């Protein structure tokens, strides 16, 4: 039943040769490039920002990185325990984005961006989490639309992200302070010159 629903939802979302070329091009940009917001925003939050907020921002970055590491590990384990072919491997629908014929469930892109969005919802602000969740949903849609993922692959990514954030929160309570202080010391050592120049925050 779940597999039938998966196929039916895919058929509703997947583009066809009759789909507008501008929409396929937009979906390609979203599917391939929009995920770069994750490293760019993480670096920006660590290096810059109001002095009174930098510590909280850096803790957010560490917690989010830990959550992504957990969720991607979980995604890898699930993918190997329960392998699932991509739509174009099964000969289902149309594929507009070249991709290796590896396991599709859960989606790595979905796992990373949903973990990132959930982290901001849980540990930052509602508005920033909502914006990132909208971006996550756009990425999820685009990869189904272009034929490289099933809808359930994205649901799997969301669930992996949620588990990653919950695990990160538990680990943070036990080891967070020590890990953050060590990373902060390492950062100050490696970035001593840019910090002295005032190019980045101490």
Automatic annotation (TrEMBL):
Gene: ybjG
Protein name (record): undecaprenyl-diphosphate phosphatase
Domain Phosphatidic acid phosphatase type 2/haloperoxidase residues, every copy: 61-169
Entries under Gene3D superfamilies matching the protein: Phosphatidic acid phosphatase type 2/haloperoxidase (1.20.144.10)
Class of this enzyme: hydrolase
Organism: Pseudocitrobacter cyperus
PANTHER family per record: AT30094P (PTHR14969:SF13), SPHINGOSINE-1-PHOSPHATE PHOSPHOHYDROLASE (PTHR14969)
Domain of life, source organism: Bacteria
Its EC number(s): 3.6.1.27
